[in-house]
Amino acid sequence: MSLGKLRKFQSDIDEENPYWLSFSDIMSGLLIIFVLASLVLVLELSQRKALVDEKILERTKAEKVRQEVLAEIKEELRRKGIMVEVSDNDTVLRIPDDQLAFESNEYRVPPQDNYQAAVLEIGRVLYTAITKENRLDLFDTIFIEGHTDKRPSPRNLGNWGLSTFRAISVWNYWNDNLGNDLRLDQLKNHQDAPLFSVSGYGDTRPVNETQETEEDYRRNRRIDLRFTVIHPKLDDILSILD
């Protein structure tokens, strides 16, 4: 076939197939679609990662603020001559027995002026530390935890009841005596729920495992303040990744 006839033959094919696309055109189109889809996927994954990172950063910030708050409370009370302890990886503020010494089988705040003044000052410093600089938004719950020594209590509900009554006693003492401008029971967490809660652990979490002397027993009759902070929920993370 001559060159002229070949060109005429190809021209006839093009005229008979006006929508004909070459193989290279098809591949080019598919490549463009693939690139666009990849860009959309990368953008979506980047947005999801940013949301997860934001949740993690929020938790990290909350943990840092908790550490700062406990250190600040401890230092401020030290200046006032009240010694407290920070324990459990900077999550618990412990009121030791020399600041709040419950008598055996007793749950009321001791009547001595020095004990009552110390408990009241702890409440004041606590309120000031957690309410400044929007710190409340980062806390979930502050537990007032009551504890007993290992000796069985004859009171109703035994050591469990006694430890809970101790926590309630301190809580009520604060709200009855701190004044309306420092009421801890009016504080809300990030979900607009009450920030404080009380709990009792009986003799299950002693600071002195060996309890033989009266001093050993006394140290375990105490109040701990446990600070919990906000954290990303698993459902929130999974919803971001879906």
- Beginning-to-end CA distance, first to last residue: 62 Å
Our estimate of the beta-strand percent is 5-15%
SSE order: HHEEHEHEHEH
Summing up helix and strand content along with how strands pair, one would put the structural category as alpha+beta
Can you tell me the residue ranges where pLDDT is under 50 for at least 5 consecutive residues?
6-10, 234-238
H/I helix tally: 6
For the largest sheet, list the strands in their spatial order: 1-2-5-3-4
Rg, Å, rounded? 33 Å
| Total beta-strand segments | 5
Overall mean pLDDT: 83
Features:
five-stranded mixed sheet, 52% helix, 5 strands, alpha+beta, 242 residues
What does this structure look like?
By secondary structure, the protein is of the alpha+beta class. The protein is 52% helix and 11% strand. The chain has six helices and five strands, in the order H-H-E-E-H-E-H-E-H-E-H. Strands 1-2-5-3-4 form a five-stranded mixed beta sheet. Helix 4 links the parallel strand 3 and strand 4. Helix 2 (23-79) packs antiparallel against helix 3 (113-131). The protein is elongated.
